[in-house]
Design a protein that fits this description.
This protein is mainly alpha-helical. It folds into two domains: 8-149, no CATH class; 153-240, Orthogonal Bundle (Arc Repressor Mutant, subunit A). It has twelve helices and two strands, in the order αααααααααααββα. It has helices at 8-17, 24-33, 42-49, 59-72, 76-83, 88-110, 115-129, 137-149, 152-165, 177-183, 195-206, 233-241; strands at residues 210-213, 228-231. α7 (115-129) runs antiparallel to α8. The longest helix is centred in the middle third of the chain and has 23 residues, at 88-110.
């Protein structure tokens, strides 16, 4: 990053000259970012925004960026390590990926109504930038798309499943069917048949975060059985990248 810790002074003057050619969304993003002394790669990202953002603006973009920057600022040392002592090609590649992800996050935030969902998009962006290796743009974009769709209630159910099954995935690549079936009853939903449980977990399953457990082989076909679900690694990953302080 240049010695000038406040690159937006010069950028602001340049924008005054280019005001008519800058899209509304660009103005919204740059106006909000101008309040922060940005670190790499976001200082580089801003330099490319003017020519690449589509029209449209929303205060939700500001909320997403504020959430992202708050998380990134917790990891000043890591940001320096990612931007220093690396080959020029690697640094530029990370900058380009960060730019693409920021633009995608801005668009998704603009089209997302609920504030908590917008915040989760910001956390996904922050965690992608803070990855030791170059961020997997496809994964981050998919996680942002899922974040647009899941409600706070959906997240509550997912985190409860992680509480009772997540530790198994620390040492294994999947939760064995029997373990998942037994642990399921420890959730706050218990064993009672509740249509909301099926509704929420069917939604989570549609995004590949959980999977339904086949019923026991000895189950009477006439029995009224509560469907049970098993946590998948993608679900654990989604919860991690949408949690504050999860970056490492």
């Amino acid at each position: 990053m240049p010695a000038d810790d406040h690159p937006f002074d010069a950028l602001d003057k340049q924008l005054q000259m280019e005001l008519l050619s800058v899209s509304p969304l660009t103005k919204a993003v740059l106006a909000f970012l101008s309040h922060f002394p940005l670190k790499w790669p976001f200082n580089k990202v801003v330099e490319m925004l003017k020519a690449r953002l589509v029209a449209g603006s929303s205060e939700r973009i500001g909320l997403m960026l504020e959430t992202c920057m708050a998380e990134v600022r917790k990891h000043e040392t890591k940001i320096k390590e990612l931007s220093q002592g690396k080959p020029t090609e690697e640094v530029k590649a990370r900058e380009e990926v960060s730019t693409d992800l920021l633009l995608d996050a801005a668009r998704k935030a603009e089209n997302t109504r609920a504030r908590e969902r917008v915040k989760r998009i910001g956390l996904i962006l922050a965690n992608a930038v803070l990855e030791p290796k170059r961020a997997d743009a496809d994964e981050a974009e998919e996680m942002m798309r899922v974040a647009m769709e899941l409600s706070d209630r959906d997240i509550e159910y997912l985190r409860e499943l992680i509480r009772i099954e997540g530790s198994v995935l620390d040492t294994q690549d999947h939760v064995p069917r029997y373990d998942a079936h037994q642990r399921w009853e420890q959730g706050f939903w218990g064993t009672r048949i509740n249509p909301e449980v099926d509704s929420v977990f069917s939604k989570l399953e549609s995004y590949g975060l959980v999977a339904r457990i086949p019923p026991p082989n000895n189950l009477n076909i006439l029995a009224d059985y509560q469907n049970r679900y098993v946590l998948l690694k993608k679900g654990l990953r989604f919860a991690a990248v949408t949690s504050q302080g999860a970056a490492r």
